[in-house]
Design a protein that fits this description.
- This protein has about 450 residues and is an alpha/beta fold.
- Helices cover about 40% and strands about 15% of the residues.
- It folds into 3 domains: about 120 residues, 3-Layer(aba) Sandwich (Rossmann fold); about 160 residues, Rossmann fold (3-Layer(aba) Sandwich); about 130 residues, Orthogonal Bundle (Helicase, Ruva Protein, domain 3), CATH 1.10.8.
- It contains 17 helices and 18 strands.
- Helix 12 crosses helix 14.
Length: about 450
């Protein structure tokens, strides 16, 4: 029988989790805060920790870091909180959390995670601690289930120095993901050098990446340090890696395998300590139609692969993305009609297109509320009516309007699913625990599922 330490300051939740863990066949050990948890861990015989982040006597992430830096650094810690945000998720996963769950819990999933953590506990030895990363919230936005998976992989990638391959459609935010991997890693204080390979003249790509010696070609009037050299011990981000020709793919493969390269026109071997993070909007996996990466290069790059979802697969994030795009703008609100059309549109250009549309609308509206007529013609088709009565949003602040719209959208999904919250979550494109958390946040009364 394994012992699971539950660190939770809400008594009802703590005791409920204890009963569930006991039914799973494990021994629950309950702690109301960090002080009690430390005492229990010091006494030993703990096989897994279920840790709430926000506790009355401190920050759960601090305890997570202390565990990772101590004698029991292999102890699996599952982080749980009602306050799901990207920075917390990345920090938790970077600092060695086994997994990150949000309240209210999907109990079968939580118990399966606990069971998996216990079974894999012996494989988690030797996790190296990481120095604190800069406390900065990046421009990546989203609380959908799809984005939560992205945050988790970013956290894992930040704790490693392995190459990373980021895939996804144009405009999904692949460079922002690369920046997040860098910012939360131990290389955060070293350079982040980005190169858009698709924007370079093919004949100059090698010189741009590797550098060149004086006189190596017409116009090379002086020695030039390439991007690999400029990146130093930091991160080199190669955007649109799928556009790199075969000969340069071979040279990049050598850098990944041996950490060595030569400048164009040079004979001296140079070494690179930079981490390579690459991105492509083309098929990457060998055997996929249209794949352009050499098989050897793909497997060298995709030690860690992060797939960034298209906006149409995370539409529940649109209100948050709108609010983020309007930060600092004089616009205070988005009308329900306008928000409905933003949600109904397919967004072939993904987040980049959405941000462009919102910033344009903020300029064109000439007031404090973005309405349908402020949107471009591509969004001109009327959206589906949510209800026959349509409230006036003009008196609300932007975040209030977003919350009100989210509430109406959730109520509509619940009505359409006959009160079945699992089905409502599926219709909304979010995980069931996220729906529960949003319902609690918005004051939507729960009722017995049919």
């Amino acid at each position: 029988m394994s012992t699971v330490l539950v660190v939770e300051d809400e008594r009802g939740v703590r005791e409920g989790l204890g009963r569930a863990i006991e039914k799973l066949g494990h021994k629950p050990l309950l702690a109301a805060g960090i002080a009690e948890a430390k005492k229990a861990i010091e006494q030993g015989s703990v096989d897994c920790v279920l840790l709430d982040i926000r506790l009355k006597d401190g920050d759960g992430l601090t305890l997570l870091r202390e565990i990772r830096e101590g004698a029991l650094r292999e102890l699996p810690v599952i982080v749980a909180t009602a306050y799901g945000d990207s920075e917390r998720t990345i920090q938790a996963m970077r600092d060695g959390a086994f997994d990150y769950l949000t309240k209210p819990f999907d109990l079968p999933h939580l118990l399966a995670t606990v069971d998996r953590a216990i079974k894999q506990a012996n494989l988690a030895r030797g996790v190296a601690s990481q120095p604190p990363a800069p406390s900065a919230q990046g421009p990546l936005v989203g609380t959908s289930a799809a984005m939560l998976q992205v945050w988790k992989v970013i956290g894992r990638a930040a704790a490693s120095s392995a190459p990373v391959l980021i895939t996804g459609e144009t405009g999904t935010g692949k460079e922002l993901v690369a920046q997040a991997v860098h910012q939360y890693s131990s290389r955060a204080r070293e350079p982040f050098v980005a190169v858009n390979l698709a924007a370079l003249v093919p004949t100059l790509i090698e010189s741009e990446l590797m550098g060149h010696e004086k006189g190596s070609f017409t116009g090379a009037s002086a020695r030039h340090a390439g991007k690999l050299e400029q990146a130093g011990q930091g991160t080199l981000f190669l955007d649109e890696i799928g556009d790199l020709d075969a000969s340069l793919q071979t040279k990049l493969l050598r850098v990944l395998q041996e950490g060595e390269y030569e400048r164009v026109g040079g004979t001296s071997r140079l070494t690179s300590g930079a981490r390579i993070v690459a991105a492509t909007n083309k098929p990457a996996r060998p055997g996929q139609p249209g794949a352009t990466l050499r098989e050897e290069l793909y497997y060298r790059l995709a030690v860690i692969e992060i797939e960034v979802p298209p906006l149409r697969a995370r539409k529940s994030d649109i209100p948050l993305l709108v609010a983020h795009a309007l930060e600092g703008a004089p616009v205070r609100a988005v009308s329900e009609d306008a928000m409905g059309r933003l949600l109904a549109y397919g967004w072939p250009g993904n987040v980049r297109e959405l941000v462009h549309v919102i910033k344009r609308a903020a300029v064109m509206c000439g007031g404090e509320v973005i309405d349908v007529h402020d949107l471009p013609p591509t969004l001109a088709e009327p959206s589906v009516e949510l209800e026959t009565s349509r409230p006036d949003y003009e008196g609300l602040q932007l975040r209030e309007a977003v919350a009100a719209f989210e509430k109406r959208l959730i109520l509509r999904a619940l009505d359409g699913s006959g009160g079945n919250r699992a089905e409502a979550a599926r219709r909304l494109g979010i995980a069931r625990p996220q729906l529960y958390a949003k319902m609690e946040e918005l004051g939507i009364a729960t009722r017995q599922e049919k």
